[in-house]
């Protein structure tokens, strides 16, 4: 996940979907040695959280769309994504009460599987994920996500 997100920060997708029925502000980029300070200027030498990456991608011009459920455990991540201070774009957070899809879809990849973007999904549970880089499969999934989820639910 770290490599995918660092690549996204270097060359942001035009549209980035993040689907996770349960979502937390998990650590996703290990910047404890400051090795990504040129990619993430201004952030300290520490683990970088998912919301920080998504907000930065939106600021860099990516149309970031986060789809999740309206459950209490998602509140912190949702609030951090929705309450972005300052000027610039922010991720669009949408609620879908029956969401079960999980994954991240960018212009050059689709990571999908059983993993929610939570601590347990990332570090504890035995999850299965598949990374696809096939442009045709990515395009088909983008069409499907836009048909299924664009305008679905309501803004968080």
TrEMBL record:
An example of a Pfam family matching this protein is: PLDc_2
Q: What is the lineage of its organism?
A: Bacteria, Bacillati, Actinomycetota, Actinomycetes, Propionibacteriales
What superkingdom heads the lineage? Bacteria
Name the InterPro entries for this protein. Answer: PLD-like_dom (IPR025202)
Organism whose genome encodes this protein: Nocardioides caeni
User: What is the designated name of this protein?
Assistant: Phosphatidylserine/phosphatidylglycerophosphate/ cardiolipin synthase family protein
Domain named Phospholipase D-like is located at 50-140
């Amino acid at each position: 996940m770290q490599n995918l997100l660092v690549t996204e920060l270097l060359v942001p997708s035009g549209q980035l979907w993040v689907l996770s029925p349960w979502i937390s502000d998990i650590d996703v980029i290990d910047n404890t040695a400051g090795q990504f300070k040129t990619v993430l200027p201004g952030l300290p030498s520490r683990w970088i959280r998912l919301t920080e990456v998504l907000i930065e991608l939106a600021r860099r011009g990516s149309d970031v769309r986060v789809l999740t459920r309206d459950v209490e455990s998602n509140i912190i991540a949702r609030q951090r994504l929705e309450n972005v201070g300052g000027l610039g774009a922010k991720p669009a957070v949408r609620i879908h009460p029956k969401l079960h899809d999980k994954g991240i879809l960018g212009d050059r990849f689709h990571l999908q599987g059983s993993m929610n973007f939570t601590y347990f999904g990332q570090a504890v549970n035995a999850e299965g994920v598949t990374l696809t880089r096939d442009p045709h499969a990515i395009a088909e999934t983008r069409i499907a996500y836009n048909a299924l989820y664009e305008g679905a639910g309501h803004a968080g």
